[in-house]
Amino acid sequence: MKILLVDDNAARAEAVQTALAQAGFPRPLLIAGTEDLPARVAEIGADVIIIDVDSPSRDVLESMREITRERPRPVVMFVDQSDEAATKEAIEAGVSAYIIAGLDPQRVKPILDVAIARFRTYMGLREELERTRASLKERKSIEKAKGILMRERGLNEDAAFKALRKLAMDKGKRIGEIADQVIAVSEILGRDS
Fold this sequence. Notes:
By secondary structure, the chain is an alpha/beta fold. The protein folds into 2 domains: 3-103, 3-Layer(aba) Sandwich (Rossmann fold); 132-188, Arc Repressor Mutant, subunit A. The chain contains 7 helices and 5 strands; from the N terminus they run βαβαβαβαβααα.
């Protein structure tokens, strides 16, 4: 696991690096400052990001949004001061753990553990949602294709489904792919309502 620490306070960064190393984590790579953060994170290829700032600026939050959009990963942000709007923006930008009251090197390991676990849970839910959406889309396509076959070939619903399933098996494709092809042909022929 490659950890990136973004902190412009060298003494504090050293304390965090030492605390993480003592806790069994690999020693984090250090970036001093947040300028051009998305490019620097991409170059390093960090798996986990820890950011320590006095107060999150709009630029830092926008950088986090860009970083997590391109490649989601656990992000822990320590801030000395914040308000409700900044907290909300940070979470929406993909920050897994947003800790107010500054960075204490002894708290970093348990916070990082929680952030990683929370991130994994979030990604699992996100993947499940995507699978559910894909399944729903496929079911809608199958229903539409069955309707086309029922109308065009005079089949009942069960026979239309069996025809789709047989063609899918014969072609070695998913039934949803065959349904999409039936719909596309119907649209080309101008027969889809």
